[in-house]
Design a protein that fits this description.
mainly alpha, de novo design (two linked rop proteins), two-stranded antiparallel sheet, 2 strands, 2% strand, globular
């Protein structure tokens, strides 16, 4: 696990984007950048977000001064758009450099994509599950409001993400060339996120039956979809479960990081 400026490098690449239930938001660069951008657009918080950094103090952490102390006037957020976060600026700079660079005619040789046998079947089944689950969630009226930990929240969160992450993994597998990399394939990480979403959704549907919110016959088709998708993804990505996601799958490293913070 690599730490840079207090953030776990790459942790956001293989998460489920459920920031409200994530224990690593304080270590996620994307989460911090998004919150800073939101603050810059809020007239009440913009002076703080835009205040200049001070030299590191006794705590070793950079700090900001409000406008009245720094003497640096701040502009209204509508006057100056917020600058992009560092990770986005770096990506945009790389794209600009690639677009401006001169390439010989034979610089790019289109390599044939790998044939993934169950790609279309996974695509169709995941999309169908997403559509049916959304319809089920939209047409059911429940006597009790959703509570924290409600299985319906899990189903609602993952019913579209399973399809998105599965397709990202399949696309990455089709384009992958092991000879061009010496690190674990990105597509296994995406497939693992899809599989974890399937696992959690499967448990959530069973919980609805156990608590009497839904009948076994009512959720049978959703269970069938998820079991089929799980088996198909595990056949297509046999090493996905073993993929080590930064932070999430490194408990010993996280424990050392937390100890070092105190």
């Amino acid at each position: 696990m690599e730490i840079r400026d207090g953030f776990i490098v790459g942790i956001y690449n293989y998460c489920d984007s459920w920031c409200g239930r994530c224990a690593f938001t304080s270590r996620c660069r994307v989460f911090a950048d998004m919150r800073e951008m939101e603050a810059r657009l809020d007239p009440n918080l913009e002076p703080v977000a835009s205040a200049p950094y001070l030299p590191e103090g006794l705590s070793g952490l950079p700090s900001r001064l409000p406008e009245r102390l720094s003497g640096v006037p701040s502009k209204h957020p509508m006057d100056v758009p917020p600058s992009p976060p560092p990770w986005l600026k770096e990506l945009l700079d790389e794209m600009d450099a690639a677009a401006c660079a001169a390439h010989p005619d034979d610089a790019y040789v289109k390599r044939g994509l790998r044939v993934v046998p169950e790609r279309d079947a996974i695509d169709d089944r995941a999309e169908a599950y997403s559509r049916r689950a959304r319809a089920w969630l939209n047409t059911r009226e429940f006597d009790l409001p959703s509570q924290a930990g409600d299985p319906r929240d899990v189903i609602a969160w993952f019913h579209m993400m399973i399809h998105v992450k599965a397709m990202r993994a399949l696309h990455g597998l089709a384009e992958d060339d092991p000879s061009e990399r010496d690190w674990p394939p990105d597509h296994d990480g995406s497939a693992k996120v899809a599989l974890l979403g399937i696992d959690r959704s499967h448990t959530a549907w069973l919980d609805l039956v156990e608590t009497g919110v839904a009948s076994a016959s009512e959720v049978a088709m959703f269970i069938d979809d998820l079991l089929w998708l799980r088996a198909a993804l595990e056949r297509t990505f046999p090493k996905a479960r073993a993929f080590v996601r930064p932070g999430f799958d490194e408990p010993a490293e996280v424990e050392r990081l937390l100890r070092s913070a105190y």
